[in-house]
Amino acid sequence: TVTLVDEGKKPLLEDVVLNxxxxxVTVEQFDPGTDSVQKITLSLSQVRDLAAALxxxxxxxxxxxxxx
Length: 68
Prior knowledge:
The protein has one helix spanning 44-53, and strands at 2-4, 16-20, 24-31, 36-43. It is extended and about 45 Å long. It starts with a strand and ends in a 15-residue tail after the last helix. It is built from one helix and four strands, in the order ββββα.
């Protein structure tokens, strides 16, 4: 579990909690507007794609693995 705390200038956002499991990663953040925790679940494939996309310019990409 990793917790990201917003310590910058105001307005501050709620902490973000990332949980890594064997089959997925969840991202959670409290939403004061709904008074509930919002959760996103990513497959490990989606996490790999996201990590690769962070270093690329804006666009649509698809990971292709070579079988060999």
